[in-house]
Amino acid sequence: MSASRRRLTAGVVTLTAALLASACSGGGDAPASDPNTLTIMSKLFGTAPDPKGEMHQAVEKFLGKKLQITWVPNAEYTDKLNVTLASDNLPQVMVVDPKLPAFVKSAQAGAFWDLTGKIDKYPNLKPADARTALNSSVNGKIYGLYRMRPLLRSAIVIRKDWLKKVGLQEPETVDDLYEIAKAFTEKDPDGNGKKDTYGLIIPKWPGNYASASPYDVIETWFGAPNGWGERDGKIVPGFDTPEFLEANRWLKKMVDGGMVNPDFATLDAAKWNEPFHQNKGGMIIDVNIRSRQVLDLFYEDDKETYGDKVAMVGNLKRSDGQKFSYPFTGYADVLAISKQSVRTEADLDNVLKTLDKLAMKEGQVLVTNGIEGRNFKVENGDTAALINEDDPAVKTIQDNVDDAFIQLSTKGTVDIGGIAYQRVPSGQPYKDMVALQKKLMAEDLKTAVHNVALPVVAPTAVAKGAQLDTIIPDARIKYLSGTFTEEQLKAEIKRWYDSGGTQVAAEINDLVGKLGQ
């Protein structure tokens, strides 16, 4: 067992006792937390903002409170979260996946405030969408404020200039993607005279099965359920279907053919854009906003030709022409409030009032778009057009927003039904990409395959999450890497069932059945 796995297991084993103790300490005579400081732990996708920097200071000024934020790189977040949950030093607010077994266990043990029925009196914290609120719940209980995100944002970002070089069109089917990946690997698309490129870039994925990884998207394209789906009248996990195996055979053929980056099991997700930008890899399967991230990189290289470098397409059809698009949950994590550091109802009211203020339009614009007049200006009443993009200090503000502070946004942007401005950089290639993004989202929603089990959490999945959650993703990586045969992959699926998965499936079926009652 790896060191990280040992830490994860140890954290879950010691979790319940530690959190029950901390939850029980929240009596009325407990010392109140500092009402003028908000402590937060959040994910980070780039460089941590300077506490003395413009963005941090602007958010503090808006809230009228000091912020103490622990920024944790996304690839390390789950390990850090488990260690923090098992400690006696929880921040007041934590950005968490509400379905993570360690969090569910701690929340149900009383370590986080149950906000069900509490947030309606805060006008800016009321859920914008009842279904998304249910999706982010734990069997109907609200343990955090969900962060609104597009319901469908899966896409493929492609080197546009490479497509032109190898003489191929944008893909419509999985077969097309395979041919493009092969051409990008064999036909010297960067023109350096060497065979040193590959078609598809995949990073080490920090999440478990059904966590919006490139693997999950591809499996859905082939017809596998998205997480959980109905087969023969029962709800089954997507990995226990023929389509799951077919998709991974297809991807393994690409890996064996050198069409995928050889370090796909270890590449840091924070460096995902680098091979694309540095003429190593030609395609990324991820969220559509990544198209604008890589445009940023090429813009820095050449402000005249950057639009010639990046193309984007939506979800792909299967070989037989059927299309199954990969949707998202409508949310990405929640802001949960710890009972250990927010001990009384009065403390909770203070934190919720602060988060309610942050959820106002002015606050959401700040953490989603940046500082008006400094790094963006409003156009048409709903668009944040970037300004002063070549000023390093202004670029730092935008990087702080994109990489960090956007994690504190709960209401989303206007283009997905939220209240913050849609970011549109000044260049025409960016504007074209935003328009394409909207078009692809609308089209792919027609064929979206939704996870029917999103609102529920099986008790056995919570109790045995540390043992169960890594079985399938670990086996999938070993199969794709050539360490496992397909029979060994199937054996690991059986081991998932034998280790508690059979009970999980039964509980999922029961809980989903009760949702409609």
Please provide a brief summary of the model.
This protein is α/β, with parallel strands linked by helices and 517 residues long. It is built from 19 helices and 14 strands.
Describe this structure in words.
The protein has helices at residues 3-24, 54-63, 77-85, 101-108, 130-135, 160-166, 174-186, 214-221, 242-256, 273-277, 290-301, 345-358, 361-369, 392-403, 428-444, 459-463, 465-468, 471-481, 486-515; strands at residues 37-44, 66-73, 93-96, 145-148, 154-159, 198-201, 228-231, 234-237, 281-287, 310-313, 331-337, 376-379, 383-386, 422-424. The chain folds into 2 domains: 3-149 and 331-368, D-Maltodextrin-Binding Protein, domain 2, CATH 3.40.190; 154-326 and 450-456 and 470-484, D-Maltodextrin-Binding Protein, domain 2. A hairpin with a 3-residue loop joins strand 12 (376-379) and strand 13 (383-386). The radius of gyration is 23 Å and the shape is globular. It is built from 19 helices and 14 strands. It is α/β, with parallel strands linked by helices.
Which descriptors would you attach to this protein?
single chain; alpha/beta; 517 residues; D-Maltodextrin-Binding Protein, domain 2; globular; four-stranded mixed sheet
